[in-house]
Amino acid sequence: MSHEHIPDGWQATEKTIHRTFPTATFVRGVAFITAIRDLAEGVNHHPDIILTYPTVIVTLTTHDEGMVTMKDMALAEQINRIWAEQFSA
Fold first, then answer.
1. Closest Cα to residue 51, out of 35, 30, 34?
2. Among 17, 32, 58, 63, which is least packed, fewest CB within 10 Å?
3. In sequence order, which residues have a C-beta less than 8 Å from that of residue 20 and are 6 or more positions away?
4. Which domains does the chain have, with CATH numbers?
């Protein structure tokens, strides 16, 4: 898949897209991860997540295809939306 349509704030590597989200507190980071968990479970597509206070790093790839797919792009857009609506302020 071409990386030309990567959602805002995400960066591409050869087989993944990732984004670092700054969280002001540990509790806020955990809450953001919980929101991502709920999204991921809903679409049965699970990111790799690292909480390293004060940031949350999210990496997306379609593991069974070994590359970025539309599933990853769609989940990244949804994560961006949750971030903007609930956590970026």
1. 30
2. 63
3. 55, 56, 57
4. 11-87 (3.30.1360.20)
**Residues 22, 30, 88, 68, Cα dihedral to 10°:** 70
Task: Output the CA–CA distances (angstroms, integers) from residue 43 to 26, 51, 64, 72, in the order listed.
Answer: 26, 22, 15, 11
Instruction: Classify residue 14 as exposed, middle or buried by CB count within 10 Å of its CB (0-12, 13-18, 19+).
Output: exposed
Q: What is the pLDDT of residue 88?
A: 86
Q: Check residue 28 and report its DSSP letter.
A: H
The conformation of residue 67, written as its DSSP 8-state character, comes to: B
DSSP-derived 3-state class of residue 57: strand
| The pair of three-digit structure tokens given for residue 9, joined into one six-digit string | 């704030």
